[in-house]
Amino acid sequence: MLENIKVSELPSVYLLEKDRLPNCAAIYFVFDSKGQIIYIGRTINLVERWKAHHRFNQLKRFNRKNTLSISWLTCSSDIENLSNLENEFIKLYKPPLNWSKVVVPIRKITPAETALQQSLQQLAKFNFMIVGFDPISDGEPPTIYLVYPVYGMKGLSGSIRIALKKINKKASFLKWKEYKTYPKSSGKFGFWETEYNGLRIDLSPFDSLLHGTFKPSDYSWNRTYGI
């Protein structure tokens, strides 16, 4: 299990001492001064990778006020294995710079709680509602269910999509994923999810909000939504 690998105890060097990195195949982790992983990558030769890393100038700017370090987990040089392992680590730690553009100057990392607050502030403009909470079951994280109104074949899905993608552009550990989208002929309504502090948040379209007939019992927990 990746969770059992203590990445904070891996060998490391400061970003500006990257020439001291070994020439091994590895998964590497960029840490900030608070010990948070802000970027993850893979390579078959660590020191050569960092001689001309496409993120170095971006990270160097960030390093001026927040000392960064590079840690690494030595691996086999099998490309497929490295790629799979990198993807699993990214999925586990959600490093914010892995979703940011290289050309954008990064001056700070937006805390996950701030990004969540900003998300909820944006969603409040679209009259979303909290409809329930599902505790831990079958190994899945506890989930808070949110819904937003649907106007027949029209709705607020496009506006919500724009708002959440704007949140996703921030360098933050919190990211929204559109895990399901109805086809355009059915309204192109989006279903979204994110995770915060071990809690899953689910946002889905629901038409009964508009007609004053909504009751929490109307909401289907198995995601068979009656739109």
Q: Regions with pLDDT < 50 over 5+ consecutive residues?
A: 209-227
Query: What's the order of the H and E elements?
Result: EEEHHEHHEEEHEEE
Mean pLDDT comes to: 83
Rg (CA only): 21 Å
Got a strand count? 10
Q: Biggest sheet: strands, sense, closure? A: 6 strands, mixed
Strand content: 25-35%
Terminal Cα separation, in Å?
A: 40 Å
Number of helices: 5
Q: Can you give the helix content as a percent range?
A: 10-25%
Which structural class matches the secondary elements? alpha+beta
How would you sum up the global shape? Answer: elongated
Protein described:
The protein is of the alpha+beta class and 227 residues long. The protein is 24% helix and 26% strand. Strands 5, 6, 7, 8, 9 and 10 form a six-stranded mixed beta sheet that branches. Strands 1-4-2-3 form a four-stranded antiparallel beta sheet. The radius of gyration is 21 Å and the shape is elongated.
Note the topology.
Blueprint: E1 12-14, E2 26-31, E3 37-43, H1 46-51, H2 56-63, E4 69-74, H3 79-93, H4 112-124, E5 129-134, E6 143-151, E7 154-155, H5 157-168, E8 177-181, E9 190-196, E10 199-206
Parallel strand pairs: 6-10
Antiparallel strand pairs: 1-4, 2-3, 2-4, 5-6, 6-7, 8-9, 9-10
Helix pairs in contact: 4-5
Structure summarized in a few sentences:
With 227 residues, this protein is of the alpha+beta class. The protein has 5 helices and 10 strands.
